[in-house]
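Budget justification, computational time. The allocation requested in the original proposal was used primarily to generate structure tokens for proteins on the priority list. As evidence of use, we reproduce two of the resulting records. The first is shown immediately below.
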Amino acid sequence: MKTLLLSLAITATLAACATTTSPTGRRQYVGAVSQAELNQLGAQAFAELKQQKQQTPNAQQRAYVSCVVDTVVAALPPDWRTATGNTGNWDEAVFLDEDANAFALPGGKVGVYTGIFEVARNQDQLAAVIAHEIGHVVAHHHDERITRQAGASGVLQLVGALLGSRYGSGVANAAVQGGSILAQTGFLLPGSRAQETEADVVGQQLMARAGFDPRAAVNLWQNMIAAGGSRPPEWISTHPDPESRINELRARASDLVPVFEQARAAGKRPNCG
């Protein structure tokens, strides 16, 4: 009943959907739910995930991730620093999971799996991962995805798993539990290639403004490919062709080095470990 009522309520808002422009100039259709509703869904899903997945007891890992998240968030425009309209600041959690994954949710929630440390080998590379995921939030990709699903089905059921195959079998199994926000939303189903490329653009700009070396995004993806062998890690399985992506990241990094150097000259020198 809860799911049905939610679907009917959201269906009634479809007429209010709007066209907007993404950070890279791409046309987006958004507005099936309000930002406040997105924030609430993100917070609920994050709370559920923290109940279902074990978090790391390693205080050093938690502090490391918190430092990187805080530094990246500090480089956001002011209206995004306070959890995209929520009253609280951004929150993060480090989950014990060998998958090399991470995610960010509306409402200022960031999750990192411990497996990411195998490929993100320094703070700049970890910042590339986190800034990319935050880029999805900043670029309204969750709103866009829900609105697109609503338009395709006529009735937004918020179906699928919040954490699909891209985020590991443990979370996927938890997500199928009926009635949960994890089972009702598609926030973290793999994005389209256009969205993934856009998150690369936004994320690389963001990490450079935060004082992280944008060239580290190239090294991160090289590590990802090497770690995956013939089968890339799940985190990149739905992304554009890795070699093409590396070339694009490398080209953007060259343009962003002056931004990075300016940030460093202004005192933005992250020391997260």
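The second record produced under the same allocation is shown here.
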Amino acid sequence: MWLIVGLGNPGEEYTRTRHNIGFRAIDTLGDRYGLRFDDKRGKARIAEGSIAGQRVALAKPFTFMNLSGQAVTSLTQWYKIDPATQLLVVYDDLDLPWAALRLRERGSAGTHNGMKSIVQLLGSQQFPRLRIGIDRTPPGWQTANYVLSRFSREQEEEMPQLLGAAADAIELIIREGFTAAMNRFNGEGKKS
């Protein structure tokens, strides 16, 4: 089984912000397989089903970004999974160029508050993640304002392709394993 958690903030006002690209990526994946976020469990909206013959639970925490670890730890306990091999966290990353995808099997939280919460409450950095590049904070902007701002019109036009590539990466992880997905998606750079 895979638990795939997209990070973001609940509420309509956050839907199209940079910080919510994790939510949008797993929405895209869920749409491909007819999975609907109809259930609530462990402080998250859940869509359960099957992808590539494996059981999956897609999750969107409703704890707000900075408390994402509460939902993730609760869900890993509920599903009785090993985070090192059965958890995938999908989130925005300021340190990657716009539309770049990077898969890592483990690592630090960096400057991302949602990831800091997950690492702290799981007590480990040993879990896979898919980082989606949103580019660095522009000069004169505060980081918090930037991640809570909306994408440009040009970026929104590129969004279906980017979200499709993120969903492709997740599918490949489930179907062929993390190494195959890293070999295909890491280093490809911008998806435009």
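A brief technical remark on that second record: DSSP finds seven helices and seven strands in the chain.
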